[in-house]
Amino acid sequence: MDGDGRRLTAQARPAAGGGLGRGALWGLAAAVPLAFLGVFFAWPVVTLVARGFVGESGGLDLSGFAEVFSQPRTWRILGLTLWQAVLGTAFSLLLGVPGAYVLYRCRFPGRRVLRAVVTVPFVLPTVVVGVAFRSLLVQGGPLGFLGLDETFAAIVVALVFFNYSVVVRTVGGLWEHLDPRAEQAARALGATPWRAFRTVTLPALTPAIASAASIVFLFCATAFGVVLVLGGIRYGTIETEIWIQTTQFLDLRTAAVLSVVQLVVVAAALTVANRTRARRERALNLSSSASSAHPIRLWRDGRPTGDLVPAALTAAVVVVLVGLPLGTLLVRSFRVPGGGWGLDNYANLGTTGGRNALSVTVWEAMGNSLRTAALATVLAVVIGGLVALVVSRRPRSRGGRRAISVLDSVFMLPLGVSAVTVGFGFLVTLDRPLGLDVDLRTSGLLVPIAQAVVAIPLVVRTVLPTLRAIDPRLREAAATLGAAPGRVFRTVDGPIAARSLGLAVGFAFAVSLGEFGATSFLARPDTATLPVVIFRLIGRPGAENYGMALAASVVLALLTATVMLLAERLRGEGPGGEF
Amino acid sequence: MQRTTTGTRRRTLATGAATTLALLALTACSGGDDAAGGDDASSGGTVTLVTHDSFAVSDEVLAAFEEESGLTVEQVAPGDGGALVNQLILTKDSPLGDVVFGIDNTFASRAIDEGVLDPYTPAGLSDSAASYAVGDGGELTAIDLGDVCVNVDHAWFDEAGVPEPVTLEDLTKPEYEDLLVVTNPATSSPGLAFLLATVGAFGEDGFEDYWADLRANGVKVVDGWSDAYYVDFSGSEGAGPRPLVLSYSTSPAFTLTEDGTASTTGALLDTCFRQVEYAGVLANAKNPEGAQQLLDFLVSEPFQADVPGQMYMYPADDSVALPDGWAEFAPLADEPFEVAPEDVSAHRDEWITAWTATVVD
């Protein structure tokens, strides 16, 4: 680490006067991620979409737009996509912000475990969760009386289930570092807890909330399995429609038009989020988490405190929304095929399933998953870290600021583009990437790369709010005192960024563990990952395969929770005020 | 002091974690290198099979082939059904491998028409397999087959005291109201097969009326097989509310009773559509000779005999002996409904659209 820092310093120093060398360095830091995303995202997607706009005679043909937009179905699908994404995002925020408060601002026993548990839904394969959810909701099921089976409400509930932790973590990550003294001062001046929150804390949190909202919106707008399984056949979104048109009908023209529509929706959402963020973003007084978190206290002097409502809300979410489906999954995983209870399903994970459903055992698949996720995490953290660093700068020129804002949005796009477009795009471009004689499509190396592409935006969004909240005066002060840019970076940005980096590592690892969309197009049978074998097991009849699918999902859930717990430890929460 | 301590501890942990990640990454890399190295070392000695994730073969059967031919078989499984064929069409000029296995009769004509296959009739092709030929070009060779049929939960009908339905027409009768769950032909390959069964049974002009009757009788449609079988079907582990589900004729073999003498579910053999799975040599294959050898192997006796146990399908070569007791719980329909692959290819999209208009909208 130190060696790197020194090299950075040494390179930067000769040009320090003109700032040209520094500029070149930042240029390089921006170029590496741009090149990566260019080759593994933009090129495949653009190539595939472009095919849809090539007419019979070979020229540009945009008549697809008129045709697709003249169908009432398109408008219905567009409306539904926006509506479910807006509601999914709104409810995730409404429930997630109090959750962030309870899990990051309050202290109570079991807090870390709970933080890890709420992340689990985020990585579970949608097909298993869909089946678990629907088993609860179906006529005659435990919650059948609610009449939610195959309704729009069921889709929204499931979206909140999957995305709750994104809000909790993104907002919590900033909140726990927020200096509590401003709020304490407001309280001392007589403000009610609600007013103090609204006027002091909420504005400070807005950048992180906008960050979380944009991620959740993108996830909701591109939700696939949830919509198919829980919505039934009456509900379709742009994403499911692109999938059907591409994989089933190979109607690339319609798919291309829909991809463009999806891109427009996503770009609009990102612009709104960016505006909100930019308006609110400013340097914050960050403190160490140890001093900012307080022991949770629901009652004081016979009256409820400000902790009560968020605590009750979070408890309800954890028990009902997260606990019930996960609990059902856990309990049923212990049901022995043929009746009774036991560990049979877990013992079977060492096999290839009933009637040879798999080509590798579930444990081998887990090994594949871990290896792939490790590689994907390294890629995502290095590249995402670079992006966050570049984007966290505040150039003085207006053009520079605009460039950075565009860059910021561009790196979010992988979350907003259909996995099938990316997957099929790989097929038509990466047979000889950049003229090299390596067929990347079948090499197996593409799996971690595809997962990293999805994880990078999350790494950026996790690290960025913290980096941006660093007071630039700290850097200026360091520079005035004679520190070279490399040293400023190492001593000012580094320690603060490292904290959120732990979180980012966990997130990236979890995302790649759970990634299914692009992976399913690329995985080779002998290197199938955990979500892929789970999907396969639940696609076969037989009590044994069903039981194994549930047990394997529980293993995936435990693995995720463990990774998140480790990431929290890596981050370190011991006392000591570094900033 | 305190600060230094935590700082050090964190760095140690971070270093440890970084080392672990790096090691894992290296392992992953070396895995990739091995595969790439294999390609280079035996140039021409590797043949790549593009298939779906249901493809399976016994290790010893495959090893025997590899030893005899000197070839190394690589597998890639990018999807199944329509997704597989459409990926082949997209990658026609630079295919993902040399041989494809898993194109079924609902997408066979499309693959041929798009020119993704080179004609090759393997040596030693059985008459029964040859009888499933699509067109005259010899682009596709039948490897295995199975039926998509309505499955029934025996216990449910016993308890209700209602006789089990037998034919497609029965399913529209009032006594079977709200009992059937099927899958969407636009998103699921058994769903498409069942739609074709109704086209085969009632004709191009009659199937829409049949579906209107089914709809009036409370048929439920979901998007995927797992969903239908494990959530809605009463005869699975999920124990859902409906005793009739669209599945495969082999599914009852997965629901045997404890002693293995009976199955708790059965297939209605008068409601079936036959799915035939084909293999073929991909156009522009890097190793066309190896591809032909692999295709010869796929129709050979050792592989065909391996099909039932490994993939749970019937071998296309009907002279191959089936495992004991195989036919008892997984019988084939005597007279499945049929639609010529050419007709399927010509009308598939139109039929799905008509189906959607009848059943969904």
List the keywords.
heterodimer, A: 579 residues, mainly alpha, MetI-like fold, two-stranded parallel ribbon, two-stranded antiparallel ribbon, 72% helix, 1% strand, disordered C terminus, B: 361 residues, alpha/beta, D-Maltodextrin-Binding Protein, domain 2, 2 domains, ten-stranded mixed β-sheet, 12 helices, 10 strands, 44% helix, globular, disordered N terminus
The count of domains of chain A is 1
Low-confidence stretches of chain B: 1-43
* Assembly state: heterodimer
The overall strand count of chain A is: 4
Describe the structure.
The complex is a heterodimer of chains A (579) and B (361). By secondary structure, chain A is mainly alpha-helical. Chain A has a single domain (20-335, 343-571), classed as Orthogonal Bundle (MetI-like fold), CATH 1.10.3720. Chain A is built from 25 helices and four strands. Chain A has helices spanning 2-12, 20-52, 63-69, 72-105, 111-123, 126-137, 152-175, 181-188, 193-221, 225-231, 238-248, 252-280, 289-292, 308-333, 344-347, 362-391, 398-410, 413-416, 419-429, 446-468, 472-480, 485-514, 517-522, 530-537, 543-571, and strands at residues 106-107, 294-295, 299-300, 303-304. In chain A, helix 9 (193-221) runs antiparallel to helix 12 and helix 16 runs antiparallel to helix 17 (398-410). Chain A is globular and about 65 Å long. Mean pLDDT of chain A is 84; it is low at 1-18 and 573-579. Chain B is α/β, with parallel strands linked by helices. Chain B folds into two domains: 46-145 and 276-326, Periplasmic binding protein-like II (D-Maltodextrin-Binding Protein, domain 2, 3-Layer(aba) Sandwich), CATH 3.40.190.10; 147-274 and 332-359, 3-Layer(aba) Sandwich (D-Maltodextrin-Binding Protein, domain 2), CATH 3.40.190.10. Chain B has helices spanning 2-41, 59-69, 81-90, 108-113, 127-130, 154-160, 189-216, 225-232, 288-299, 301-311, 326-329, 341-359, and strands at residues 46-50, 72-76, 99-104, 117-118, 141-153, 180-183, 220-222, 244-248, 265-282, 314-315. In chain B, strands 1, 2, 3, 4, 5, 6, 7, 8, 9 and 10 form a ten-stranded mixed sheet that branches. In chain B, helix 7 links the parallel strand 6 and strand 7 (220-222). Residues 1-43 of chain B have low confidence and may be disordered. At the A-B interface, helix 6, helix 11, helix 16, helix 19 and helix 23 of A face helix 1, strand 2, helix 3 and helix 8 of B.
